[in-house]
Write a structure and sequence with these properties.
Distance between the termini: 29 Å
Low-confidence stretches: none
Radius of gyration: 14 Å
Mean pLDDT: 86
Order of helices and strands: EEEEEEEE
Strand order of the largest sheet: 6-7-1-4-5-8
Helix content: under 10%
Largest sheet: 6 strands, antiparallel
Number of strands: 8
């Protein structure tokens, strides 16, 4: 299944990150971290100007709407909710 976002919306696939380990040996899950989330732009709407498919972007933890398709989590967010593009 493919999603085509409308207007200024962007479909982002969550990036999988390694669990962070504290000095005491405890693993900290992503949900407990207070940092921006990271993902890859999969599709963009017709009014999106700054990002394109394939860009790795940062966004707030509570931005957009989460959906799950074929056991893969995606996020549909407005372009203005994207904090930045990670340059490679």
């Amino acid at each position: 299944m493919k999603i085509k976002p409308l207007k200024d919306r962007v479909v982002v696939k969550f990036a999988s990150e390694e669990l962070e380990k504290t000095p005491g040996g405890i693993y900290v899950p992503d949900v407990a971290k207070e940092k921006p989330q990271k993902g890859t732009v999969m599709e963009v709407g017709s009014e999106v100007k700054e990002v394109k498919a394939g860009d790795t972007v940062l966004f707030d933890k509570y931005a957009g709407s989460k959906i799950k398709i074929d056991d893969v989590e995606y996020l549909i967010i407005k372009e203005e909710e994207i904090l930045g593009i990670i340059q490679k």
